[in-house]
């Protein structure tokens, strides 16, 4: 059993978060390149932040897999795969290229050799998922203790969105956890899908938890998204207590068990409604058509377009028999005025959209303008979580088609996504004013790790902890 050499600067007492006020000079750009301290400093600052705030070095040493007589141990694999996800690796082939080009050389003590991508594959298939899930839970608990959910609230309400996303599909490869569907040509397609719970409304917008859809839950069909969402709401309450005040959900989740589960967890719901056959919707259509709107206001979207909003509402509705409390039905019509190009000329047009919402909040608890904002912020799970995870973290690519490896890689990608956003959007409160895209910063951090003269081991491997 080996341990790292004893160095004074690797002691825990010497781990310090760099002064954020001194970072202003590094936020300037010249001809597309950073000047001053450059972004290379950020990868060292991130390693310091991850270890000091989230005890990242302990997480690395906790990592386990069930390989026998492994020459390269799980902590080395943990560091490589985490920073591979942090740097947005596209495939295992790219990870192999980064390993050969020494991208991770400064993350691992020089006395230990880097793994090959085949070793990483084998380790991920034997990974200990229970420890990994516990590490994710500790990160979210730390975020809650730092009042991250409250800083990203909407009018004082902590909002969580739940939605599902398909990861990848194949007609040739399958595993025991694959979901199945029949294509038009009669062939069978295998795919994986998850349901995600994410903070929305502002702040870091991290992912609180996620669950895989399971195959064949009965009656020869795969598990539905609403079943997974129900399980997710219950697990959030068990793991984190009351981390959210309200769930914002799509019409797919407009079901009584989900509403009752949210109420049992001490939260409320704002659900988009589409099914006009429901009695509560039929009553709303009848009542709202007979009177003028109850509220109106003007607002601007993120592109600066002017929006005129009309709203109808009715509370105390008991038409949903399976729900234990009266509900509040809201109808919102938005008139959005925007400029488009037609025939090389700018033309102003008005788009009209209609939206129906059901909420457990009463009129005295939350005003209709806040309910409308909460419903709109549901799109953040699409624009932030799913878009970033698919476009930049490539979660829709099957790196290793093995049930344990798939879940382990998703955990690594979610952990990297959360720590990345917590560092830049929660710890660095002024990052949005840097006027630079996050992916550009990440790319420069990767190149700094490869070419810069940085001592990252002292942050990631604290003195006295065994590596092998």
From TrEMBL:
InterPro entries cross-referenced by the UniProt entry: RNaseH-like_sf, Transposase_11
Pfam families: DDE_Tnp_1
Source species of the chain: Heliorestis convoluta
A GO term, aspect molecular function: transposase activity
Domain Transposase IS4-like, chain residue ranges per copy: 220-419
Swiss-Prot/TrEMBL keywords: Membrane, Transmembrane, Transmembrane helix
Gene Ontology biological-process annotations: DNA transposition
Name of this protein: Transposase DDE domain protein
Residues covered by region (Disordered): 1-33
Transmembrane segments: 74-93
Entry keyword annotation includes Ribonucleoprotein: no
Residue stretches of biased makeup (Basic residues): 17-32
Record's signal peptide: none
């Amino acid at each position: 059993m080996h341990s790292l050499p004893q160095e004074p600067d690797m002691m825990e007492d010497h781990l310090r978060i760099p002064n954020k006020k001194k970072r202003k000079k590094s936020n300037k750009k010249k001809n597309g390149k950073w000047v001053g301290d450059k972004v290379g400093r950020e990868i060292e600052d991130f390693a310091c932040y991850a270890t000091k705030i989230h005890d990242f070095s302990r997480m690395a040493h906790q990592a386990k897999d069930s390989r026998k007589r492994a020459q390269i141990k799980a902590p080395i694999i943990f560091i490589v795969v985490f920073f591979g996800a942090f740097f947005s690796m596209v495939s295992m082939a790219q990870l192999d290229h980064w390993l050969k080009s020494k991208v991770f050389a400064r993350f691992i003590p020089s006395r230990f050799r880097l793994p090959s991508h085949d070793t990483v594959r084998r380790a991920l298939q034997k990974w200990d998922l229970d420890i990994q899930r516990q590490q994710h839970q500790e990160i979210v608990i730390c975020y809650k203790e730092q009042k991250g959910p409250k800083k990203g609230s909407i009018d004082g309400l902590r909002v969580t969105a739940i939605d599902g996303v398909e990861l990848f599909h194949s007609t040739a490869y399958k595993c025991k956890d694959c979901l199945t569907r029949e294509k038009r040509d009669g062939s069978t397609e295998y795919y994986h899908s998850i349901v995600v719970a994410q903070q929305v409304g502002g702040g870091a917008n991290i992912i609180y938890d996620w669950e895989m859809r399971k195959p064949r839950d009965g009656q020869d069909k795969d598990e539905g998204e609403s079943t997974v969402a129900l399980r997710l709401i219950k697990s959030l309450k068990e793991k984190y207590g009351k981390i959210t005040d309200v769930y914002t959900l799509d019409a797919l989740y407009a079901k009584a068990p989900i509403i009752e589960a949210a109420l049992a967890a001490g939260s409320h719901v704002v659900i988009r409604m589409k099914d006009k056959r429901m009695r509560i919707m039929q009553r709303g259509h009848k009542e709202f058509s007979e009177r003028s709107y109850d509220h109106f206001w003007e607002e601007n979207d993120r592109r600066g377009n002017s929006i005129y909003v009309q709203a109808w509402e009715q509370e105390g509705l008991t038409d949903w028999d399976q729900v234990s409390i009266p509900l509040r039905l809201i109808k919102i019509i938005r008139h959005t005025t925007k400029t488009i190009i037609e025939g090389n000329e700018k033309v102003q047009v008005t788009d009209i959209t209609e939206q129906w919402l059901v909420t457990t909040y009463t009129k005295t608890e939350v005003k209709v303008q806040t309910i409308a904002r909460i419903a709109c912020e549901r799109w953040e799970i699409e624009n932030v979580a799913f878009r970033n995870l698919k476009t930049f973290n490539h979660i829709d690519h099957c790196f290793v088609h093995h049930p344990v490896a798939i879940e382990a890689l998703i955990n690594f990608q979610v952990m990297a996504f959360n720590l990345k956003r917590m560092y830049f959007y929660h710890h660095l409160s002024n990052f949005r004013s840097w006027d630079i895209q996050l992916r550009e910063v990440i790319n420069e951090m990767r190149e700094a790790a490869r070419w810069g003269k940085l001592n990252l081991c002292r942050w990631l491997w604290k003195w006295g902890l065994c590596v092998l």
